[in-house]
Each structure stands twice: as C-alpha cells, then as structure tokens.
Amino acid sequence: MKSIIYLLKNKDSVIKISDISSDLNISESLLRRIIASLHKSWIVYTKKWRNWWLSLWRDPKSISVYDVLFSVWEELWISECTKWNYCENKDICFTTHIYWNIQKWLNGILKLYTLDKFFIETDNE
Questions:
Q1: pLDDT at residue 116 above 70?
Q2: Is the Cα dihedral 20, 37, 83, 60 positive or negative?
Q3: Dist CA 35 CA 39 (whole Å)
Q4: Cα 8 from Cα 118, distance rounded (Å)
Q5: Which CATH number fits domain 2-117: 3.40.50.300, 1.10.10.10, 3.20.20.150, 2.30.110.10?
Q6: Least buried of 6, 27, 80, 90, by fewest C-beta within 10 Å?
Q7: How far apart, in whole angstroms, are the C-alpha atoms of residue 90 and residue 60?
Q8: Coil/strand/helix, residue 113
Q9: pLDDT band at 125 (very low <50, low <70, confident <90, very high)
Q10: What's the rounded Cα separation, in Å, for the pair 116 and 1?
C-alpha cells in the first residue's frame, strides 16, 4: 500500500523502483516482486528502460484496497475455514458461521475503499 500511495502522490513524475525503494526504505528486490504482482493484476503499469518506470494502470477510482492486497498476497482469509467458503468441521464447530460473516464484512470493507480515497490533493503545498 505504501508504494501505491507513493505512486498516487507522484503521479505527474517519472517514478523508478529505485526511487520508491530509497524514499520508503523498502528492499528493492522485495519491491520488484511486489510491483511484478501489481503489474500482473493490471494495477501498476511498468516500462522497463534502464530502470523500471512506474505508474498506475487504471483510474484510482476503479482500484480497491482489496484489489491491491489480493494481488500481492495469495490469501486474504481470516481463517482456514473461510478459505473458499468451505469448512470440513462446520457441523461440529459453532464458530464457522461467525468467521464467514467476519470474512464477508472484511472483504466488503476492503472493496469499498478505492485508491482515490487515500490521497486527496490540497492546494496548500
């Protein structure tokens, strides 16, 4: 999320992975893997020329926090039983329905917040 917010703040600049890495104090190798995942999900556009240049691929209004997190992490599940909406022990476990409801709520909240809500430009700068 830090790198996405960085892209939003610097949307009119040529941004390189090395710039984000040094400014945010994130390992460049880790950042390259994250950016590659975001690129595969059509969130970040990359152009490789001497150094990678980055920008958001789509309008920030069309990218949710869920989209970003899901593209970087393989799973956003709060427990094993909410994974794929299936639990082997649902007949004997009385908390499965609670976990499923929490999972639906979490996914809904993450999908509700789009990137345009994270950065509001001000004229005070």
A1: yes
A2: positive
A3: 6
A4: 9
A5: 1.10.10.10
A6: 27
A7: 39
A8: coil
A9: very low
A10: 13
